[in-house]
Automatic annotation (TrEMBL):
Phylogenetic placement of the source organism: Bacteria, Pseudomonadati, Bacteroidota, Cytophagia, Cytophagales
4-aspartylphosphate modified-residue sites: D55
Keyword Protein biosynthesis annotated: no
Residues covered by the Response regulatory domain: 2-115
Entry keywords, A to Z: Phosphoprotein
Pfam families reported for this sequence: LytTR, Response_reg
Phosphoprotein is among the record's keywords: yes
Listed GO MF terms: DNA binding; phosphorelay response regulator activity
Protein name per UniProt: Two component transcriptional regulator, LytTR family
Signal peptide range in chain numbering: none
InterPro entries: CheY-like_superfamily, LytR-like, LytTR_DNA-bd_dom, Sig_transdc_resp-reg_receiver
Amino acid sequence: MDVVLIEDEAVAADGLVALLARYDPGIRVVERLDSVEDAVQWFAGNPPPHLTLLDVQLADGLCFDIFPKVSIHCPIIFTTAYDQYALQAFQVTSIDYLLKPIAYPDLHRALDKLRRLTTEYAPPSEVSLRQLATVFHQFQKPYKTRFLARCNDRIQFKTTEEIACFCADGKFVYLIGLDQRRFLVDYTLEQLETLLDPSQFFRLNRKYLVSLAAVKDIRTHSGSRLRVLLQPAPFTEVIISRERVAEFKAWLDH
């Protein structure tokens, strides 16, 4: 069986390749793609595979943007990190889905289902694809990508790519850039948690909300805690409580 894998996270794609080989060593992943644009180009110029594993959220948009541009004449198994409420949309279609992080029993179930349906499979209709696209667009959350910040009498905007962390100091919250510059922002850490992409920012403790780019080293600490070394280094030691350690590790391993 020839499979096309469309997934924008390299680690997740590698994991799927390994799970497919575990299910059947004869499965061939003929192409790995990571964007809507690449998928459109590939399907426009190649014969359809026996199966496409398709991530809902790709590097340049939702996967549903592919279908108005090119036809995919093969079974599709969606992979997604969306929660169970969004996944209710799949009940109106005959398409299967895998919820991330993908476990082998789930993939096994989906591939067994595919084998049973192979002789009677029909690609999803344009109507059902539109229904899915509508639901997932509703579940997309528009995270903030830039913030106004103050330093003395100057006001600047900083993009999230420039931010190392947010630090609470008394009544004030500071934005600390990867360039080590420090600015005041008019948000609490609690507000920032809801505004920032949780795949890129994590609340370490009561004082620090950090970006993935700022985490440089992690060391064990007393009482089953962790000490996180940031770059640029803050003025105080950053310790993660025992209760937050498992969630922090899961964030790093996402």
